[in-house]
Automatic annotation (TrEMBL):
Pfam families: Ion_trans_2
Subcellular location: Cell membrane
Protein name stated in the entry: KCNKD protein
Potassium channel domain segment(s): 76-138, 188-273
Coiled coil stretches, renumbered: 32-59
Gene3D superfamilies per record: 1.10.287.70
Substrates-to-products reaction catalysed: K(+)(in) = K(+)(out)
Segments traversing the membrane: 9-30, 86-104, 116-135, 183-205, 217-236, 248-272
Keywords on record: Cell membrane, Coiled coil, Ion channel, Ion transport, Membrane, Metal-binding, Potassium, Potassium channel, Potassium transport, Transmembrane, Transmembrane helix, Transport, Voltage-gated channel
One Gene Ontology term from the biological process aspect of the record: stabilization of membrane potential
Any GO molecular function: potassium ion leak channel activity
Gene that encodes it: Kcnk13
Record-level GO cellular component terms: monoatomic ion channel complex; plasma membrane
Entries under InterPro entries matching the protein: 2pore_dom_K_chnl, 2pore_dom_K_chnl_THIK, K_chnl_dom
Length: 397
């Protein structure tokens, strides 16, 4: 039987696969016609170029393949700055440790590729740890602000004195434990912060890089979410107006944006986990109700040691099923459990234990002459108790 963690994992895997299938269908429907039209136009241009310059198609394709190899090494048609100077290398390692990986700059040597493996292993782990610590500090700041606002409201109402002092640093951290904000509140704050940073960064990229504002927003999401397609990359031209200030602003915006979006992804994952738990709980409740109904149906005509059931998931419906089953069994004259027998005859368990102890120790209850005449005597243990009960009933009658 699968436990809750395995069920949650399998359900999440199924949902991710369905999400990917839906996304593939949508992107294929949107982008495939444009790709076919572009390919047709490119084939026409190649045909016209070969006719105009009297070149064969094979020679032209060989030349284009050589250009593709040069492009991988960082060579472009337009005049751009060197990819592997110090500033370009610093931009590259920033994309590595942040897991963005634009792809416009990649190591071409064997030594660079080997160094990248070990460098990225440590750098990515450290950066992810930094992002997690950033989220913890953000939650602490939000809790501190919420606690301060609440104390200010209490001071205005006169509940707290205005000169109240907080305790030490450890006690203050402990006092913030009960002020942790809701996950939805944190998600809202991160969404607003990510939107503000993206809009401000797009306002900077649009005039400097020459992109449209929508393309700038697109670049911000691709970069901040560490997807990093590489179709649009900032700070790649040779010269910029206020180049040093622009590169510093580009670094700050990318750092803040990645921190906010990464934290937002963590919070959204918590919300998704809560949704999956809710779905599993609903499915478990339905399955439990069905299993309980089958269990009670199979228990008919069988001697069972009482109603053994868990009190963790008790509902009015399950209680009604149990009682109705017991009552129906009694009315139909079927065999009942010892628990139902004792409950119906109202025999105290304490009295029963006392009588069992007296019988076992050799101090049986003194039988009257009437009981002997009726024949209800003798027996050991539970049989002696039953005989005594029957004797008392016969005497009363």
């Amino acid at each position: 039987r699968l436990n809750a963690d395995n069920a949650r994992f399998l359900l999440l895997a199924v949902l991710i696969v369905l999400y990917m299938l839906c996304g593939a269908a949508v992107f294929s429907a949107i982008e495939l016609p444009t790709e076919r039209e572009t390919k047709e136009r490119w084939e026409e241009r190649l045909e016209n170029f070969t006719r105009r310059h009297n070149l064969s198609r094979a020679e032209l394709r060989h030349f284009l393949r050589e250009y593709e190899e040069a492009s991988v090494a960082g060579i472009r048609v337009d005049d751009i700055r060197p990819r592997w100077d110090f500033t370009g290398a610093f931009y590259f390692v920033g994309t590595v440790v942040s897991t963005i990986g634009f792809g416009m700059t990649t190591p071409a040597t064997v030594g660079g590729k080997i160094f990248l493996i070990f460098y990225g292993l440590i750098g990515c782990a450290g950066t992810i740890l930094f992002f997690n610590l950033f989220l913890e500090r953000l939650i602490t700041v939000i809790a501190y602000v919420m606690k301060s606002c609440h104390e200010r409201q209490l001071r205005r109402k006169g509940v707290l004195p205005h000169n109240g002092r907080r305790g030490s640093g450890s006690s203050e951290v402990d006092s913030l434990a009960g002020w942790k904000p809701s996950v939805y509140y944190v998600m809202l704050i991160l969404c607003v912060a990510s939107l503000i940073i993206s809009c401000c960064a797009s306002a900077m990229y649009t005039p400097i890089e020459g992109w449209s504002y929508f393309d700038s927003l697109y670049f911000c999401f691709v970069a901040f979410s560490t997807i990093g397609f590489g179709d649009l990359v900032s700070s790649q031209n040779v010269r910029y107006e206020s180049q040093g200030l622009y590169r510093f602003g580009n670094f700050v915006f990318i750092l803040m944006g990645v921190c906010c979006i990464y934290s937002l992804f963590n919070v959204i994952s918590i919300v998704i986990k809560q949704s999956i738990n809710w779905i599993l709980k609903k499915l478990a409740c339905k399955c439990c109700h069905r299993c309980q109904r089958r269990l009670f149906r199979s228990r008919r005509n069988v001697v069972m040691p009482g109603n053994v059931r868990s009190r963790r998931n008790i509902s009015i419906e399950t209680d009604g099923v149990n009682e109705s089953d017991t009552d129906g069994r009694r009315l139909s004259g079927e065999m009942i459990s010892m628990k139902d027998f004792l409950a119906s005859n109202k025999v105290s368990l304490a009295i029963m234990q006392k009588q069992l102890s007296e019988t076992a120790n050799g101090y049986p209850r003194q039988m009257s002459s009437n009981s002997k005449q009726n024949g209800f005597s003798g027996g050991v243990g539970a049989l002696a108790i039953m005989n005594n009960r029957l004797a008392e009933t016969s005497v009363d009658r």
